[in-house]
Amino acid sequence: MLGEACRHGVKWSDHCPQCELVSARETVAHWGEAVDRARSVIDAANIAAAEPAGNILLKVAGKPFRCSCGCNVFHHPPNNSDVYACNACDLCYG
Ligand SMILES: [Zn+2]
Ligand SMILES: [Zn+2]
Asked: How many CA atoms lie within 13 A of 4 on its CB side?
């Protein structure tokens, strides 16, 4: 099968746009769905990361939660998204 040229008559050492198109279509057919899924996962992560980490209004059992200092606005401390810290006194909950 391997001759001097591809089936479009282009030498193997040269660039053949038609061969490239064929392989591009194969790549999309094989990986397109996985890439789309991966992109949506990355997008969701980026959106989550882009949300401001401050000014979170907490609710506990459906009621607004207040810190013992009376403040009801919280933020995540840096590098700890499991914990909520009071914006006023920095007391941590979580
Ligand atoms: Zn070709
Ligand atoms: Zn507080």
From this structure: 1
The ligand that comes nearest to the alpha carbon of residue 12 is 1
CA of 88 to the centre of ligand 1 (A): 67
Find, among 54, 48, 50, the residue nearest to 85 by Cα. 54
Tell me the ligand closest to 84's alpha carbon: 2
Instruction: Locate the domains of the chain by residue range.
Output: 1-51, 52-94
Strand boundaries in the chain, DSSP class E:
56-57, 59-60, 63-64, 73-75, 84-86, 92-93
| pTM for this entry | 0.44
pLDDT digits (tens, 9 = 90+) for 52-81: 667 889 888 899 999 999 999 999 988 888
Other CB atoms within 10 Å distance of the CB of residue 47: 9
